[in-house]
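Protein-export protein SecB, pasting as requested.
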Amino acid sequence: MTEEANKPAAQEEQGPQFSLQRIYVRDLSFEAPKSPEIFREEWRPSVELDINTRQRTLEGDFHEVVLKLSVTVKNGEQTAFIAEVQQAGIFMVKGLDANGMGHTLGAFCPNILFPYAREALDNLVTRGSFPALMLAPVNFDALYNQELERMKSANEMPA
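Structure tokens follow.
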């Protein structure tokens, strides 16, 4: 009986918990609208990268985080290719306050997903017969803080 009485106190002392349950590709697409003509032109690419994240609570302490990377590469004025990946993960997160949960789901989890998304994009691009696309690391903490500041100045409440 004393063991049962001590269990809640032991669980409280355990503190926050985090674990990665699964990483998977939610959506993947590649389009090269000017192929094969684009391969005969001098290669002077310009790269546009769009990064978005979203999260949703699944059940209990489980959350899905989706990192979406969209890349549009133009050669001069022509679109050489458009590649997009939605890399997702299921994470168990508990014992955090609202700020800690927001940071974990909005910055920490996308940081875990980014290398997988970057590799998937690079693989798509090389399969399309274009030069490898090596995306630079992304500072998700800075992006998360910028979004908080934007929301604060717009008087929006964080989700």
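Note for the archive: Residues 98-127 form the longest helix (30 residues).
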